[in-house]
Amino acid sequence: MMSIVIINYGDTTYFRKLIDSLDNKEMEIEILVGTFDKINKDAEGKIKWIYLDKNYGPPGNRNRVARYAKGDFIVFLDNDVVLSPDFSVNISKYLDHSSILQLVLMREDGRIDSAGGLIDKLGYPHEIGRDQRFTSQEVKEILYAKGAGMIVPRDVFLKLNGFDEDYFYGYADTDLSLRAWKTGYRVVSIPVTAIHYEHGSFSSDEVERKLRLAFLLESRRLYFVTKNFEWSFLLSVFPKMAFFFLGSMIKDIVIRKDFSLFVTRFKAGTWFLGKLTEISRKRLKYRGKYRLGEKELVKKGLIIDH
């Protein structure tokens, strides 16, 4: 059995399309939906509604709903994803207990929105296949899968203690994927597609959106790298990390003349520094439990040069 985990907040149009796409009798599933709204008692009995007392962020919300999962595999889907009619037929041949799977998320125009990604040595994400046409039928190793459409064996999810909730937004799926690799599992993109409408959760105001994305990218990246990279690898890339981070702040003032962006990066650095104690605790917790290091992931082409 597969457990479908969805977080839905106030949406009806996209969520309805997703639920309709799950109406497939060939697949034994349970549908678990986390919501902050009052439970809709008129909803279909096939949905198990789980009330969340507040917004814990995508990783925290997903962790809380996944606690109720009974299936061998947990399918994490955004509420604006629609599965293909032949999903249950296609997915069965790829399921195994040693791999996290990434669905190929497609836009309505037939181009790839996400097929997972790689990271560079500074922790920046590099999306695979974005904006390209979907043609490959191969299973490809990737560094990370995205929570909008990823399948995790339940036993693996429990062994990894789920998503790291300290991220709140951004990088938690990348973090889970890297920890999976380092613990001895694989992360792969499979040729099974789903439509991702991606109606977005950020402000439509371009300036506000830019600043919000900059804060999340920089703060979570610093947290992710410092928490997860083994010491020898971290020390080798730290000078370059500091150079690029401080250099970007100087450019914000001197070249871009964007003081608000400078302040945003400063806040990102401050957020990261406030997490150093927690990072130290987590590094101690995982010490000695990893089988694979960053150097091996570089050799596999999953961590690339900046």
UniProtKB/TrEMBL annotation:
Alphabetic keyword roster: Glycosyltransferase, Transferase
UniProt domain Glycosyltransferase 2-like: residue ranges: 3-87
Coiled coil residues, start to end: none
Keyword flag Glycosyltransferase: yes
InterPro entries linked: Glyco_trans_2-like (IPR001173), Nucleotide-diphossugar_trans (IPR029044)
Domain of life: Archaea
GO molecular function, one term: glycosyltransferase activity
Family: Belongs to the glycosyltransferase 2 family.
Protein name: Glycosyltransferase 2-like domain-containing protein
